[in-house]
Design a protein that fits this description.
Blueprint: H1 2-16, H2 25-34, E1 40-45, H3 53-62, E2 66-71
Parallel strand pairs: 1-2
Length: about 70
Amino acid sequence: MKNYISALLLLCFAIGFAQPEKPSSAEIYNKLQKLNFLGSALYIAAHPDDENTRLISWLANDKKARLKCNSSF
């Protein structure tokens, strides 16, 4: 029982003293741009070879859409 308490305390201290992520200015700017796009896209293809990567990259990079891609084998 004593080992569990000491492990729990150690975990609490490790979580408490962990440094938060510091995103770069480019990451912050990209996330701010994504706020201007209202919506998301779900792309489903039968095989990975059938994916239209130009469309996926256009939606993700130019339109800043939130994407979920699914390829079933």
